[in-house]
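WP5 quarterly update. Target: Piwi domain-containing protein. Source organism: Callosobruchus maculatus. Length: 263 aa.
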Amino acid sequence: FRDNPFLKEFGISIGETFELVNARVLEPPRLKYNGGREATPNRGAWDIRSQRFLNAKPLQKWVVLCLDRNVSPQKVNDLQSEIARSGGNLGMTIGKPDTYKVLTDQRTIQRDVQTFLKEKKGYDLIIVILSDKCNFYGMVKQEAELNIGCLTQCLLTKTISRDPIPPSVVTNILLKVNAKLNGTNHVLSHRPQFLKGNIMVMGADVTHPPASNRNVPSYAAVTASHDLDFFQYNTACQLQAPAMETIVGLEDIFKRHLVYYFK
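Structure tokens (predicted):
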């Protein structure tokens, strides 16, 4: 920037060294797993290969739906086998999956997915493999979890592209799956004093469309924990006026979260 003519024109100069400030590193909390075993995060990550979920939920009825024609049958079989193996290591009871389904006809994909999901309504989970370049995620989620009532876990093909599929990749998938099944992966080993008692942790945010889309509404979401370990969350979402940063009706949303918490 020192030789930038535009900055010079306006008499602007930029220093070459960052400002130094005092800081401190917070000690990461220790996490408790099944059997009282603990893990300590380091730089935001920790190894759970030798751990078992604190409350592992069974996955009995499940199936893989593949929407990418480039995924081989062997790759799907490898994924299913690794889910069963890694899930067992984490304490989950994994049943035998149904025969996987491949749907790739772009002309009828939405109707075909809808038909398949209706057939599998009542299953514990449907794992959906999506092409890296597809735009079917929104359609799958809307059909499955809003219109029909099926729990899904979506994966991109690139996530499982390596041979063999790394166990760490499947473990990360199962972290999400167990939570979606209302299980508990881990809790704080020692709860700080300020978190003792009936505490509800909340988070809120508003997502806005690009400034050029003045007629597109903003999207507000408020989450709140409803268990004593801050692991299970309930969500309230709504559309509101474009560019509105303040969440409309926050008091009513807060009341709904409180009612859900005390149930």
